């Protein structure tokens, strides 16, 4: 930085130390401002890019990592998330907060393991943010942890009770916006998407809720669609964000894969097919969402079924379908990409 001449005290030999101290004080006084305006961009790491309930070796289930100057935040923790986090050079106790979009297996499967590992490594308490029902989910996991805690007597000597290792904040109509605890520059806004909305096959008004999250920082904004069909709420939530992290499902291929891997009775198969058709997005629908909200970059994730290893062919097919609707930057994500 430069200090205007008019602000520089006239330095004599006697005053040299005082002058130096004043100049340093001016620099120190301004340093935080410079650091804030030039704070490193928030970074996104795709930990898991596959949708469930399928299990694959090449794609972990849905999980993302946000790296802010204040610390690390995970968005969903599907199966394989902890392994990918480790591969990315981090540990569960590095994570200060987890945002859950909804309570399907492919978004929460690693949450229990995550809570246990953080407790055992005596990490500071973590915030878990999620839709209504998240408190019930976490309380159940903590109850289920008791036998593990009791069996870990040596490890647990002097440790914080596992019940005190997490704090849960539910987001809903009455609480749709919050400053993430410990992250003064990170604002989280949630809206219900259409994944589990009333009116979907077999779902009523008392059905569980699925959320999309908008995350704003001083330098960058993100929209995590969560699993969803087309949604006016998401279009409103995401206006002018920089980066959209969105999901795609090839419904017919996903149903074929589900029929091979799950033992679905006919009634369940019909319901799942209906839900797949209305509660997820095709590439064209995802592209239309990114266009309507005016995003710069679209990160395509939760790729379902994606039963073959990720390939350039798959990337090109998805990209060309999306590009008919969206002219911005499109990246078909693979696990452990950094943005
Ligand atoms: Zn999913």
Present the secondary structure layout.
Layout: H1 16-37, E1 43-48, E2 63-68, E3 71-77, H2 81-87, E4 95-99, H3 105-108, H4 111-120, E5 126-130, H5 134-150, E6 166-170, E7 177-179, E8 187-192, E9 211-216, E10 221-224, H6 232-237, E11 243-249, H7 251-261, H8 266-279, H9 283-293, E12 297-304, H10 312-323, E13 329-332, E14 337-338
The site of zinc ion has 8 residues, from helix 3.
Description:
This protein has 339 residues and is of the alpha/beta class. The protein has a single domain, classed as Metallo-beta-lactamase, Chain A (4-Layer Sandwich), CATH 3.60.15.10. 34% of the residues lie in helices and 22% in strands. It has helices at residues 16-37, 81-87, 105-108, 111-120, 134-150, 232-237, 251-261, 266-279, 283-293, 312-323, and strands at 43-48, 63-68, 71-77, 95-99, 126-130, 166-170, 177-179, 187-192, 211-216, 221-224, 243-249, 297-304, 329-332, 337-338. The strands form two sheets. Strands 6-5-4-3-2-1-14 form a seven-stranded mixed beta sheet. Strands 7-8-9-10-11-12-13 form a seven-stranded mixed beta sheet. Helix 6 (232-237) links the parallel strand 10 (221-224) and strand 11 (243-249). The protein is globular, with a radius of gyration of 23 Å. Zinc ion (ZN) binds at residues 51-52, 62, 104, 106-107, 227, 302. Zinc ion binds at residues 51-52, 62, 104, 106-107, 227, 302.
What name does the CATH topology carry?
A: Metallo-beta-lactamase, Chain A
N/C terminus separation:
29 Å
Report the CATH superfamily: Ribonuclease Z/Hydroxyacylglutathione hydrolase-like
Overall mean pLDDT stands at 85
The tally of beta strands, per DSSP, is 14
Number of domain modules: 1
Radius of gyration: 23 Å
Identify the overall geometry: globular
Which parts are unreliable, with pLDDT below 50 for 5 consecutive residues or more?
1-39
Number of helices: 10
Indicate the CATH architecture: 4-Layer Sandwich
Share of helix among residues? Answer: 25-40%
Structural class: alpha/beta
Question: How are the strands ordered across the major sheet?
Answer: 6-5-4-3-2-1-14
Bound molecules: zinc ion
Biggest sheet layout: 7 strands, mixed
Percentage of β-strand residues: 15-25%
CATH class: Alpha Beta
């Amino acid at each position: 930085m430069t200090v205007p001449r008019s602000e520089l005290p006239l330095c004599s030999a006697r005053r040299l130390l005082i002058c130096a101290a004043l100049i340093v004080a001016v620099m120190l006084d301004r340093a935080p401002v410079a650091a804030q305006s030039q704070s490193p961009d928030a970074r996104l790491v795709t930990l898991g890019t596959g949708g469930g309930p399928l299990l694959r070796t090449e794609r972990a289930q849905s999980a993302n990592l946000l790296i802010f100057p204040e610390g690390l935040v995970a968005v969903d923790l599907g199966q394989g998330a902890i392994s990918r986090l480790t591969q990315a050079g981090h540990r569960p106790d590095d994570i200060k907060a987890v945002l859950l979009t909804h309570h399907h297996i492919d978004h929460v499967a690693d949450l229990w393991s995550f809570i246990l590992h953080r407790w055992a490594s005596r990490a500071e308490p973590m915030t878990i943010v999620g839709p209504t029902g998240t408190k019930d989910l976490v309380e159940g996991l903590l109850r289920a942890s008791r036998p593990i805690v009791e069996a870990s007597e040596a490890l647990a000597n002097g440790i914080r009770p596992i019940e005190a290792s997490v704090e849960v904040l539910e987001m809903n109509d009455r609480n749709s916006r919050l400053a993430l605890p410990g992250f003064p520059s990170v604002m989280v806004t949630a809206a219900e998407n259409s994944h589990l909305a009333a009116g979907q096959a077999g779902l009523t008004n008392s059905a569980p809720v699925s959320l999309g999250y908008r995350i704003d920082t001083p330098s960058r904004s993100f929209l995590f669609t969560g699993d969803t069909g087309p949604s006016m709420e998401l279009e409103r939530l995401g206006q002018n964000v920089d980066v959209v992290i969105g999901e795609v499902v090839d419904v017919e291929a996903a149903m074929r894969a589900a029929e091979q891997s799950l033992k679905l009775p006919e009634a369940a198969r019909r319901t799942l097919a209906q839900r797949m058709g209305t509660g997820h997005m095709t590439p064209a629908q995802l592209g239309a969402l990114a266009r309507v909200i005016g995003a710069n970059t679209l990160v395509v994730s939760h790729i379902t079924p994606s039963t073959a290893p990720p390939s350039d062919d798959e990337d090109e097919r998805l990209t060309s379908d999306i590009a008919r609707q969206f002219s911005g930057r499109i990246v078909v994500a693979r696990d452990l990409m950094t943005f």
